[in-house]
Amino acid sequence: MSFAALAISLLLGAAAPEPPPSATQLPSVQLPPELARVLTDYEAAWRGRDAAALARLFAEDGFVLQNGGPPVRGRDAIQRAYAGAGGPLALRALAFATEGGVGYVIGGFARQAGEPDRGKFTLTLRKGADGRWLIISASIGTAPRD
């Protein structure tokens, strides 16, 4: 699948109407360590209210797409958008795939591990020159609240 097709399919899925709440959640999947690092680094930076660390998880030309807010593009803009944001956060993966240097993670988040999901997200990823996965776009279904 091409990167453009992957990104479009993720964005279309993120734009679908939210289903009614359900008593059951989809099960989590275990990510390979190099993808799990993206989620654990994001959690740590969010908990630490470290906008600079959050921005470094993104590719230089990365996007943040949040419900109710305009798209944010580029590390500097992402750092400004995340300034002052943060708090408890537990991310979990529902699905993932990689092909060559592109991939995605689809997941849910809560304040604490084991709690019901408060929202959902998709991360579109690209491998950097150093082999580290970077976020190209983060589409967030509901922003984590403090």
The topology string of helices and strands comes to HHHEEHEEEE
Global Rg? 14 Å
Number of DSSP helices? 4
Q: Tell me which oligomeric state these chains represent.
A: single chain
- Write down the overall mean pLDDT: 86
- In percent, how much strand structure appears in the residues? 25-35%
Strand order of the largest sheet: 2-1-6-5-4-3
- Helix- and strand-based class? alpha+beta
**Annotation, overall tally of beta strands:** 6
Quick one: overall form?
Answer: globular
- Uncertain stretches: 1-20
- Let me know the largest β-sheet: 6 strands, mixed
Question: Helical percent range?
Answer: 25-40%
Distance between the termini: 38 Å
What does this structure look like?
With 146 residues, the protein is an alpha+beta fold. It has helices at 3-15, 33-47, 51-56, 75-82; strands at 58-66, 72-73, 90-99, 102-110, 119-127, 133-140. The chain has a 6-stranded mixed β-sheet with strand order 2-1-6-5-4-3, with helices on both faces. The chain is globular. The model is unreliable at 1-20 (pLDDT under 50).
